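Quarterly update from the structural biology core.
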Amino acid sequence: MNIDGSFQKIIRYLILFSLLATAVTYIADFELFFAPSVIATFSFLALYFMSHPSLRSFAFTIWVLAFVSVSMSHPQAFMAWFENTPLEIDLGILIVPLIQIIMFGMGTTLSVGDFARIFKTPWPIFIGFLLQFSVMPVVGLSLAGIFGFGPEVAAGMVLVGSCPGGVASNLMTYLAGGDVALSVTMTSCSTLASPVMTPFLMKMLAGKMVPVNFFAMMFSIINMIIVPILAGLCANRILYSTHRIFKRGSTLVILSIACLLIAVAIIAFAPSTVFAAGGGSLPKDGIIVGLLLVAAIALSKLVIQIALRRTGNWMDKALPIVSMAGICFIIAIITARSAEELKTIAKFLIAAVIIHNAIGYILGYWGARIVRLRESTCRTVAIEVGLQNGGMASGLAMDVLKSSSAALAPAIFGPWMNVSGSILATWWRRKPAKE
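Predicted structure, tokenized:
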């Protein structure tokens, strides 16, 4: 038997054993051992899914369930580290840097041409943009009212609906046989518009539920989303440019040192805020994180491609792992802060999120069909509308709204949309688009 087969066989036995342990501890009411057995079950299941080609796309959701299980049973583990010591760290401060890293990764997959494509195909992009920022926020508000959620949870439903397309939409579009180039451009355009559109929609639809400062949210989006994406665009140039200058070790060394020195200078001498207006301010941490990540990319290319002479698209292999780990950690931090509330509303909130996501797919697809767009374009629009940037919504809920309750809906929406998107994309892939 090959190594992969042996590994899968071992993992299957471990899954069966942990499932049996979970059942026994639940029936016998052994609370001390029940949570560890649940965590072990999800962890082994996630490893098995990762090793199975047809199940790999669902592994992320299982990992999320494993992290949520840990944060529900041991919330303090994701609240603070080194408590009651001079080194105490509130893990809530990690949410924004983690999202910045994820958005930087998104930026490395983009190029200037992706943004320029709007001039070549403006009509489909306009339709997708219109549906993105109308269907999802209004449906989120309506569902929050139907389910009777409290103000902060309801604001979270509106917030996730008011965010741009999710970073997974491009992959789902490819699997569904849609227009990948259009998907990339739509995600890019909705993301660039989010500093204005997201706070505007939140102010209009959720302003009576929770205090919403337009400028504070706008600057937070620029710092957390736009600046890292711009840094990622620079990294894309370093990674994939065919120009000889980016293939020289000396160039990469100079870039790395320059970025590091500028970052250190900003940390040491620049004021804490770059710009302030209307009660909001643009902090400098996005610029610092972007510079440090660009330096890390240049150094990585120097070591991997020039020193070790290894070829292959190593960045595309590393990014999904980094993004998955970052999102799992963010969700665990949010869950730990709202564990008690989540126990009360979990099933209703999950149902609301599933309906929200499904309506996005349906209205996105048929909205595009009504204006007679091509079938592949309709699929692309449906996925762009249905998949939201849950990480961004979670970060805004914690950073601007200062509410872990408002972050619950985005925390659930993110993992679920990967499951539903994979199922929808697989179904469409079996039905080639007939234009």
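The two ends are 46 Å apart (CA to CA).
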